[in-house]
Amino acid sequence: MERNLAGRTSRGALSLMGAQAVFVISSYALHMVLARLLGPAGYGTYGVVFNLLSILFVVVSAGLPQAVARYVGADHGQAERIRRSALGMQTLGSLALAGTLVLASGPIAWLLADPSLLPYLQLSALAIPPYALYSLWAGYLGGLRLFGRQATIVALYGTLKVLAVCLPAVVWGVAGALAGLAVAPLGAIIAALGLTPSVASEGQGGVTARALLRFAAPFAVFAVAAEALTLLDLFLAKAFVGDAVAIGYYTAASTIARVPYFLFIGLASAVLPAVAHSEARGEREATVRLARQALRIVVLTAVPAVGFAALAAGPAIDLLYSSAYAPAARQLPLLTAGMSLAALFRVCANLEAGAGRERRGMAVGLIALAAGLAGGVPLTATWGLTGAALSNLLMGVVASGLALVLLARSQPQAVPWLTGARSVLAVLPALALAKLLPVSTAGLVLDLLGGGATYLLALLVLREVGREDLRLARSLLPGGKASRLRLE
After folding, report:
1. In this structure, is the dihedral angle defined by the CA atoms of residues 257, 258, 263 and 265, taken in order, positive or negative?
2. Rounded-to-integer distance, Cα 90 and Cα 94, Å
3. Structure pTM?
4. End-to-end CA distance of the chain
5. Exposed, middle or buried, 50 (CB in 10 Å: 0-12/13-18/19+)?
6. Nearest to 179 by CA among 23, 50, 39
7. Inter-CA distances, 162 with 43, 90, 231, 322, Å
8. Which of 151, 232, 257, 298 is the most exposed place for a label (fewest CB within 10 A)?
9. Number of neighbours of residue 178 by Cβ within 10 angstroms
């Protein structure tokens, strides 16, 4: 039973990571088009406003939606009651948050030393309520462990966002792009309504609105802190460097570096309700197996990402953004390392939250954010954009280090320390091969494929990847067992 739950959740997590990959690809297609439409200065303005909006998106996506995922995952019999209660609170809360952003736009523009941001910040507030409702439905489907359906609406939202943002940007520039963010979630919401099953309520009472808020509040603080860990450096760069074109370069590097982070958001979303379910049934062995497998996926993916970012930063920038953004390559390796560590922290914190220890993630996130602010101000003031990137890495090291230590104390067998060592050893021959080959924009994809194959072979030789991993990968292919499996 426990092994079956772990296997189903691993497949569900990878399905969500696949959907998140579609989301990431579509998001990068969006950024590639916007960067060319708006130019470095306009793209830098869009990047600052959008990333600030992203923090507010986290408030409405990681508070109540994650509380819904946790409590529905623990007891499906209360699912309908939980959904109705959360829907009203989410609607009112998102409207209040949008109004707050409108009122605070002036002070925010002043803090960032750019009064021209004021109308853009106010316009961006329109996107908060629809995104909040989309996030709630995604969390509800995740709580029911209908990961395939959850993955569908995540991928759909990412695809619709490209059209909804880019088309208005052609006519109205930055303002059109920001207005499109309010339209993109609507199609995903309509799809979610059709994909949401009717669930019969069982028993009386159940989870109260107060219980949802008691979980949502610290988890939202944690999630905002986690998101701010990946964005504080951009705001420091904007405040201390100021030059719009330079901020456009930095936004490009930051956007590419966030690929690992975006991918692992899907994994983090899947493990929270799964751990809550196994904990509610007293299946401790399943909880440990889930945690270990989730952390293995993060480490095995993040280590080569950082290595290849260091080798191929220039060609990657040229391919995705054009040669006009070439200076962005200087900060890309540091940012990729920092973002990968932030992703590791996010997964660790969700594992803790699923087991009822959500305040740990909140505390660690706030400590890391304080460290980043304390170190980031002098670093950015002294070394400009490179100092800002170093502050991002500093926050990632503090957050992931503390999170792993805390998780190891509560679940010693869940932390795959040996996997980290093996992944570093496995990536060395892959990087050596890539170093021997001429890294160019035209050959970048072939270089990555060759390096990836070498890395996988090294993992097989080191026995880090085995038959069970390959069987899981095959089950995700069309016609495999996972494609026919209903995660219920």
Report:
1. positive
2. 6
3. 0.79
4. 13
5. buried
6. 50
7. 15, 25, 22, 19
8. 232
9. 27
Reported as a single tens digit per residue, the pLDDT across 182-219 is 999 999 999 999 888 877 666 555 678 888 888 888 87
Q: 13 is written with which tokens?
A: 């997590």
Q: How far apart are CA 161 and CA 180, in angstroms?
A: 7
Phi, psi angle pair for 196, to nearest 5°: -80, 120
Please state, in angstroms and rounded to a whole number, the distance separating the CA atoms of residues 54 and 297.
Answer: 25
Residues composing the chain: 488
Which residue has 């690929």 as its token pair?
A: 259
pLDDT greater at residue 294 or residue 203? 294
Q: pLDDT tens digit string along 92-131?
A: 999 999 999 999 999 999 999 899 999 999 999 999 999 9
